[in-house]
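Exercise 7. Predict the joint structure of the components listed below.
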Amino acid sequence: KNQVEQSPQSLIILEGKNCTLQCNYTVSPFSNLRWYKQDTGRGPVSLTIMTFSENTKSNGRYTATLDADTKQSSLHITASQLSDSASYICVVCPLTGGGNKLTFGTGTQLKVEL
Amino acid sequence: DVKVTQSSRYLVKRTGEKVFLECVQDMDHENMFWYRQDPGLGLRLIYFSYDVKMKEKGDIPEGYSVSREKKERFSLILESASTNQTSMYLCASRLDQGSDEQYFGPGTRLTVT
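Solution:
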C-alpha cells in the first residue's frame, strides 16, 4: 500500500530559528511530491512541488529537497516566523490515477514561539 | 485566485440525521473532491467527481454519497449520520489539465452526537 510518513509529529522552535521536516514515502512510480501548509481552521495550501527529476525547490524561506533514490523529502524553513505555525503535509501524486488520487502524510505540527 | 467555499464551518448533528455538506468553486474546475481529516490519519479521499453527474469512489466511501448537478457545486451527503463520522471535512477542486494541484476549501467541522 502506498504510504507517506512524516517526522516529527510535532515540533516547537523559537522565532528566528531554522527547522527541517522529514517525509518518507513508498509511492512508486510517482509523478510529483508537494508540500502543503495548513493553518489552523483552514484548508491546505501548496508551498512547493517537485517532479521525480528535481531535487530542490524553493519558495521564499521554504526549501524542499527530494531524493528519489531513497524516497525521502525534506522541507527546510529558514528564519522562522510566528506565522509559520501550522501543519505541514507531504503529498505524493502517483504516476497512475490521473492526478486525482493523492497520498497524504499525516503532517508535522509546527509551533513557532517568541 | 481560486476560491473554494464550503457552506458551513461548524455543524452539529444528531445520530441518524441526514446531513448535506456543500462545496462551491469559482474557477470552472472539472474535478472536485471530498476528504475527511482525522488526527493521526491525514486526509482520506471519500469521493471525487471528474465531471457533472460523474463520480468515483475514493478510499472510504462507505456511509457517504455525493451529488454534482452543476460544474461548480459538489455536495457530500451523509444519509444517516453516525458518531464515527465526526470529523473535519475538506472539499477541493482542480483543473483537469496541466496541473494536479488541488485547491482546498476552509473545511467543515462536523460533530455527530
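Discussion. The interface with chain A takes residues 4, 9, 31, 33, 40-45, 48, 50, 56, 58, 90, 92, 94, 100-107 of chain B (CB under 8 Å).
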